[in-house]
Design a protein that fits this description.
This protein has no helices and seven strands. The protein has 82 residues and is an all-beta fold.
């Protein structure tokens, strides 16, 4: 599965956790923002950053910077993380 997402400036979206039998590869193609995980500090995100997740990953939110949209691709692939 592959999806392209644009989060408008100042907006946010919940990252879809991969299904069993999948791993997730997220590629930030443009913009700026932050990753907000339930049990951690927000992490800054920018162009060319990558996120990896397995089905047991906690739900996370991607938030766009106040003055800039955040564009990313989500690749749901056969497991590649060990």
């Amino acid at each position: 599965r592959l999806s392209a997402t644009v989060v408008p400036a100042g907006g946010q979206t919940q990252l879809e956790v991969p299904r069993p039998g999948e791993d997730l590869f997220v590629y930030i193609t443009d913009g700026a923002g932050r990753l907000c995980a339930p049990n951690g500090e927000p992490a800054p995100l920018g162009q060319y950053d990558v996120l990896l997740a397995r089905p047991d990953a906690p739900a996370a939110t991607l938030a766009a910077a106040p003055g800039q949209a955040l564009n990313y691709l989500s690749f749901y692939l056969k497991p590649f993380l060990s």
